[in-house]
Specification:
By secondary structure, the chain is mainly β. 14% of the residues lie in helices and 41% in strands. The chain is built from 2 helices and 12 strands. The chain has a 3-stranded antiparallel sheet, covered by helices on one side. A 3-stranded antiparallel sheet has the order 4-5-6, with helices on one face. The chain is elongated.
Length: 158
């Protein structure tokens, strides 16, 4: 092992679950990767958690992981994390809440219900996290990069 190699290995079992193998040879089946800061700093801080809910391994920077390990973790995270990015607001049913929003996302067009204005949270200077009525979180990476019509619709709720 060189200095960049972690002191663990990851593999998948016959059921597709992640298996953590520590340097000691100890095996943990069904581990889950959990990001410390999934929205604001997704590459910083990743915990591998066992089935009992205990942290087994802490990874300060995902960029330090070997490509094969990162590929397994990325695949698992993609299955667990679903935060579509809003690219354009097409329409809102009303300028009061609750209202139905029709949006274009990086995952396709969809509609969701914005229950209250408090369901829109600011992330940094220009980012937003919007909680849809069905529990799906939608992200606006940079509201200043949205088209003018989308920004005008959004400003009514901020």
């Amino acid at each position: 092992m060189n200095n960049n190699d972690p002191d663990f290995q990851l593999e998948r079992d016959a059921f597709g679950r992640l298996v953590l193998v520590l340097a000691s040879g100890e095996r943990h089946e069904g581990v889950l990767p959990v990001r410390a800061f999934p929205i604001t700093s997704p590459e910083e801080g990743l915990s591998l958690v066992g089935t009992e809910g205990r942290e087994l391994v802490w990874v300060p920077q995902t960029s330090s992981l070997p490509p094969a390990v990162w590929a397994l973790l990325s695949e698992e995270l993609a299955n667990r994390e679903f935060v579509p990015e809003i690219r354009r607001l097409k329409a809102v049913s009303t300028f009061s809440t609750p209202s139905v929003w029709t949006v274009e996302t990086d995952r396709g067009d969809t509609e969701f219900v914005l229950k209250t204005e408090e369901d829109i949270r600011r992330l940094g200077r220009a980012g937003l996290l919007i909680a849809g009525g069905a529990g799906v979180q939608f992200r606006v990476r940079d509201m200043l990069a949205l088209d003018r019509a989308s920004r005008r619709l959004l400003e009514r709720f901020l």
